[in-house]
Amino acid sequence: MSKLIKRTVLLGAVAASGAAAFYLTADTDTQMEIASSTGPLLRMLDPELSHIIGIQAAARGLLPRDTRPDPPSLHTKVFGLEFSNPLGLAAGFDKNAEAVAGLMGLGFGFVEVGSITPRPQPGNPPPRVFRIPELKATINRYGFNNLGADAVQDHLAEFEKKVLQDPSIKRGPLGVNLGKNKSSKDASQDYCIGLTRLAQHADYLVVNVSSPNTPGLRALQGRKELEALVKQVKGTRDRMLWGPGGPPPLLIKVAPDLSEPDKRDIAAVALNCGVDGLIVSNTTIQRPGRVAEFPAAQEAGGLSGPPLLELSTSVLSDMYRLTGGRLPLVGCGGVSSGEDAYRKIRAGASLVQLYTAFAYEGPTLIPRVKRELAECLDRDGFRSVAEAVGADHPDIRGGSGPGTRKTSPSWFRWW
Q1: What per-residue confidence (pLDDT) applies to 5?
Q2: Domain Dihydroorotate dehydrogenase catalytic: where (predicted)?
Q3: Residue 272 half-sphere exposure toward CB, CA atoms < 13 A
Q4: β-bridge partners, 138
Q5: Three-state SS for 192?
Q6: What is the pLDDT of residues 322-358, one digit of tens each?
Q7: Count of beta carbons in the 10 Å neighbourhood of residue 286
Q8: How many CB atoms are located within 10 Å of the residue 40 CB?
């Protein structure tokens, strides 16, 4: 290597270390701006590669840490768990629980990892992720690629150790999303294995029967199949030894591509079998609206992003109605603004998740969505998220209004 090249590399390293030092000591707003400025560069890369880079950045503490308090109106309690805000990161981003601390620090109210299968599996062959940037949408067919339950168990134990050692690390509720291996013949056994390995690290558990990228998985949403699965998994959970707080809540994640009988069956199973909640919904195999105009629409896989919002919110509303508002619902699919999150909440969601919008917009999305959601609640006179849940179903809620409208509180100045 010539002296000139060596000198150039050295100067570059010094500049990079200086930039990193500046970034890590900057205030939250500056960190957010710097992190978001890398977004256009990442979107020039292959989508799966940019995803990997994002995970590694979060795992190494290179994402912003938002220490600002959430607006009081966003605080909520669901499944007996306290949430500083109802906005969560959906499963699929941190598949192996490698970056939980960094992702929590961005300001999410909760983070869900997975989906995790008992044995490691590579997933489907690449390319398997396709952007539709004009619509801020994505189609993926990852196929539950993950390191397996043993590796994830180690990562979650490391996260818990890190939290104990560093009290500054934000620790919101953590969800663990379970899947089945592609080659497994007994789906129930796979979910039970995942549960026994990982439940001790979870604030809530999710049985994912809704990914379109594992053959036969969505067939588990049928009434007979789902009832048998839930009874076996719930029985396994309930036979384990738990402390005074009892076992973690068990949720089912369902698809948006459901017929009316499917919805009725899922609601009946959830209520009759004592499921603690539903996540509505996963990605769709449909190609609604303008999606069909783009070449990526021809790719197999699940569609996510804004084109999914209408469908997923409609299914969410149906599930709230079919369960009579007796079951906490998590609204997922197409959320990219506070208004979107608010629509989910009014339709029946107690909590809301996003993923694709975060991949497109980066860390600044989270405080923006929370600020907008707080403004929506205040605009319509709701003092809390809980007051607004199911507001579009006054016949189920037993009333139509939250009370008098209030003026904007002083904590808006924080945003």
Answers
A1: 40
A2: 74-377
A3: 13
A4: 131, 304
A5: helix
A6: 999 999 999 999 999 999 999 999 999 999 999 999 9
A7: 15
A8: 9
Angle at 258 between CA 256 and CA 260, to 5 degrees: 130
What ranges in 199-300 are assigned the alpha helix state H? Answer: 223-239, 260-272
CA distances 124 to 97, 137, 152, 207, Å, are: 20, 20, 20, 21
List the chain domain ranges.
Answer: 68-414
User: Is 384 among the residues known to form the active site?
Assistant: no
Tens digit of each residue's pLDDT (9 = 90 or more) over 198-254: 999 999 999 999 999 898 889 888 899 999 999 999 999 999 999 999 999 999 999
Query: What's the longest Cα–Cα distance across the chain?
Result: 78
Nearest by Cα to 355 from 283, 294, 291: 283
Q: Which of 211, 312, 336, 337 is catalytic?
A: 211
As to burial, measured by CB atoms within 10 angstroms (0-12 exposed, 13-18 middle, 19+ buried), residue 117 is buried
CATH of domain 68-414: 3.20.20.70
| Beta-sheet strand order (sheet of 302-304) | 129-132, 137-140, 302-304
Judge if pTM exceeds 0.85: yes
C-beta pairs of 79-82 under 8 Å, 24+ apart in sequence:
79/204, 79/249, 79/276, 79/277, 79/328, 80/245, 80/249, 81/173, 81/203, 81/204, 81/249, 82/173
Residue type, 154: D
CB 315 within 8 A of CB 347: no
Q: How far is it, in rounded angstroms, from Cα 159 to Cα 305?
A: 29
N- to C-terminal Cα separation, the chain: 50
Which single residue is written with the structure tokens 């699929």?
Answer: 92
Rounded CA-CA distance 327/267 in Å is 9
DSSP bridge partners of 253? 208, 279
